[in-house]
Design a protein that fits this description.
Number of strands: 15
Helix content: 25-40%
CATH superfamily: Carbon-nitrogen hydrolase
Radius of gyration: 21 Å
CATH architecture: 4-Layer Sandwich
CATH topology: Nitrilase/N-carbamoyl-D-aminoacid amidohydrolase
Shape: globular
Oligomer: single chain
Largest sheet: 8 strands, mixed
CATH class: Alpha Beta
Distance between the termini: 55 Å
Bound molecules: N-(aminocarbonyl)-beta-alanine
C-alpha cells in the first residue's frame, strides 16, 4: 500500500464517535490512568513549524505521606527516514542529526527528562537486504562514535538523559557489530550500554546476518530521573527478558523498535502493556515510521516475488503504566514526539495493590526452568491411562 493510503491511526477513527461513546470506548480500550497533558505553547509551535507530531499525557500521581513524588517526563521519538535509503552515509547521518536536533529541542521545550529514539535510529533498517555494504559502514563506537559525541553535548545542554539505540562497532574487540542502546546521562556522560538480547529470525528481519545476541545481561541504569532499562525491539516477545529488567529494579523500560504492519501490528499494543502490568514498571514502546525502499531486490523466503521494500513501519508509539493503562499512540504515519509525565512512586503503589511480585514464585520457576533446560527433560504431561 502506498504511504498516502496508510491509515493515520486507530484513534483518528475513534474520533468519529460521539464524545460520550468515545469516553466509554477509551475507558475500556486504554484504561483510566492517563489524561491529556497541557504542553507549553513554545513546544507546540516548534512542532508545527518543523512539521512534527507532538502529544502529551500524564498519569496523575497519588500523594504518599512519607515519600515525595518523583515526577519524570518521558519523551519517545518516532521517525521516518529523511532521505532515500541509498543516500550517501554522511548525508543520511547529517539529515538524521538535523531531525534529532529538532526532536531534542522540542523535547526540551516540553521539559522532557528522559528521551529515547527508535531502534537503530541513525540508519535505514537495511538488515532485510542481507547485504554487508554499504550498511555495515553505519556501525560506530558506542563510546566515541560521532552519534554519541553529538548527543553528549545535547544531553548536557538540556539536562536530559538520552537513550540512543545504534548499530555498534566494537573496535576494541574484533570490530564486531552489535545492536546497542547507549545511555547518556543528563551531564553528558555515558552511563553504559545494553546490547539487544534476542535477534529476530522472522520475515525480512535478517539481523542475525549482522550481529549476535547481546552479552550485556539486563542492566538497569540509575539516573537522576529514575531507574531505567532498555529492551530492544524483538526482546519484547520474550517475557523473561522483561522480567529480568524488573528484577533488577527498573522503573521505566524503553522498547525502541523497528517493526512492520504485516508482521506485528496486532501484537504491538499488547506486549509492552502486558510487561508493564506483570513487572510493575512503566513501558515505552517506540516504533519507526514509513516505508523504506532499498536499491536491490531481496526475497523473504516465502515463495513470493523478490521486492525492494520492507513494508510499512507503523509508528504508533505509546506508554503503558503498571496498572495496564496506556496512552493513545502517536500516528502510524508521521514523525513525532510523545511526552508522558509520570510519578515513579506509582510503581510501588501498584505493586502493593496487585501483589504480583509478592506472588510470583520465582524459586519454583527457577527450579522448573533448570530442569527444563536439561537435554533429558521429560515434559510434565499427564496422559489418561
Ligand atoms: N527489529 C526487530 O527486532 N524487529 C523484529 C520484528 C518484531 O519484533 O516485530
Amino acid at each position: 500500500m502506498s504511504e498516502s493510503k496508510q491509515l493515520h491511526s486507530i484513534d483518528e477513527k475513534l474520533d468519529k464517535l460521539s464524545i460520550n461513546d468515545q469516553k466509554d470506548v477509551y475507558k475500556i480500550l486504554n484504561g483510566v490512568g492517563f489524561q491529556s497533558l497541557a504542553l507549553p505553547d513554545t513546544a507546540k509551535e516548534y512542532a508545527k513549524i518543523n512539521n512534527l507530531e507532538l502529544a502529551g499525557y500524564e498519569y496523575p500521581s497519588k500523594v504518599e505521606q512519607l515519600r515525595s513524588p518523583r515526577i519524570v517526563k518521558i519523551g519517545a521519538f518516532q521517525n521516518k527516514l529523511p532521505l532515500k535509503t541509498d543516500a550517501p552515509i554522511a548525508q543520511m547521518r547529517d539529515a538524521l542529526y538535523k531531525l534529532a536536533l529538532e526532536a531534542i529541542t522540542m523535547a526540551s521545550l516540553a521539559e522532557v527528562n528522559v528521551f529515547c529514539f527508535q531502534e537503530a535510529w541513525t540508519m535505514p533498517f537495511a538488515f532485510c537486504t542481507r547485504e554487508k555494504q554499504p550498511w555495515c559502514e553505519y556501525a560506530e563506537s558506542a563510546e566515541n562514535g560521532p552519534t554519541i559525541k553529538f548527543l553528549q553535548n545535547l544531553a548536557k545542554q538540556h539536562n536530559m538523559v538520552i537513550i540512543s539505540p545504534i548499530l555498534e562497532r566494537d573496535e576494541t574487540h574484533g570490530d564486531l557489530i552489535w545492536n546497542t542502546a547507549v545511555v547518556i546521562d543528563n551531564y553528558g556522560d555515558i552511563l553504559g550500554k545494553h546490547r539487544k538480547n534476542h535477534i529476530p529470525r522472522v520475515g525480512d528481519f535478517n539481523e542475525s546476518t549482522y550481529y549476535f545476541e547481546g552479552n550485556t545481561g539486563h542492566p538497569v541504569f540509575q539516573t537522576e530521573f529514575g531507574k531505567i532499562a532498555i529492551n530492544i525491539c524483538y526482546g519484547r516477545h520474550h517475557p523473561l527478558n522483561w522480567l529480568m529488567f524488573g528484577i533488577n529494579g527498573a522503573e521505566i523500560v524503553f522498547n525502541p523498535s523497528a517493526t512492520v504492519g504485516e508482521l506485528s501490528e496486532p501484537l504491538w499494543g499488547i506486549e509492552a502493556r502486558n510487561a508493564a502490568i506483570a513487572n510493575g514498571y512503566f513501558t515505552v514502546a517506540i516504533n519507526r515510521v514509513g516505508t523504506e525502499i532499498f536499491p536491490n531486490e531481496f526475497t523473504s523466503g516465502n515463495g513470493k516475488p523478490a521486492h525492494k521494500d520492507f513494508g510499512h513501519f507503523y509508528g504508533s508509539s505509546y506508554v503503558a503504566a503498571p496498572d495496564g493503562s496506556r496512552t493513545v499512540g502517536l500516528s502510524r504515519i508521521n514523525s513525532g514526539l510523545l511526552v508522558v509525565k509520570v510519578d515513579l512512586n506509582t510503581c510501588r503503589q501498584i505493586k502493593d495493590h496487585w501483589g504480583f511480585q509478592m506472588t510470583q514464585r520465582l524459586d519454583m520457576y527457577a527450579e522448573a526452568l533448570q530442569k527444563a533446560t536439561n537435554l533429558n527433560y521429560e515434559p510434565q504431561l499427564i496422559i489418561k491411562k
